[in-house]
Amino acid sequence: MKIKRLRLLVLLPILLLGVVACDDSNDSIDYENKIIGKWQLVEQGYDESSLKAVENGVVVEYLPNGNVVEQYFNEGSARENFTYTIDSKTLYYHLIYTEGQPIDTWTYEYKFHNKYLMTKLIQGLIDDSMGAPWVKIYKLIN
User: Fold this and answer.
1) What is d(CA 124, CA 92) in angstroms, rounded to the nearest whole number?
2) pTM of the entire structure?
3) How many CA atoms lie within 13 A of 59 on its CB side?
4) 42, 44, 47, 54: which sits with the fewest CB atoms below 10 Å from its CB?
């Protein structure tokens, strides 16, 4: 009887550790460092059920200093610069002019899955007439 209890006391913490280690939420991820790098847009759509593969050349680079650069290679070569902040659930893009104050902010839910990043726009200006997607999936390329 004592051996069964001892085994249970040893196995219970191991099982608990296994459950916590398999947590799929962003809370267990070093999101501030994981987002740093170059990400290529691979899918987009209005929601997760309408995602379609993307064959354009959109690359987003998150820098450690809080800057983000979006490069578009499909229409010649265009480049947009923003700043970003991130917490365990939300990614914020800030468009800033010369006075240093954000004039517009886009708020995204995000989730990491292996070498992929999914973003979903939840607040910010978006022009539906341009067909801008709300959900985007990026693949880490660097």
Assistant:
1) 10
2) 0.71
3) 13
4) 47
Instruction: Reduce the DSSP state of residue 73 to 3 states and report it.
Output: coil
Domain topology for 27-140: Lipocalin (2.40.128)
Do 118 and 137 meet the contact criterion of CB atoms below 8 Å apart?
Answer: yes
C-alpha span between 141 and 136 (Å, rounded): 16
Question: No. of H helices and E strands in the chain?
Answer: 2, 9
Residue range 60-75, pLDDT digits in tens: 999 999 999 988 877 6
Token duo for residue 30:
């070093």
Residue 103 has pLDDT above 80, yes or no: no
Query: Which residues are registered as beta bridge partners of 53?
Result: 43
SS3 category, 70: strand
Distance (Å, rounded) from C-alpha 142 to C-alpha 129? 33
Q: pLDDT tens, 26-40?
A: 556 688 889 999 999
Residues 41/35, Cβ–Cβ less than 8 Å: no
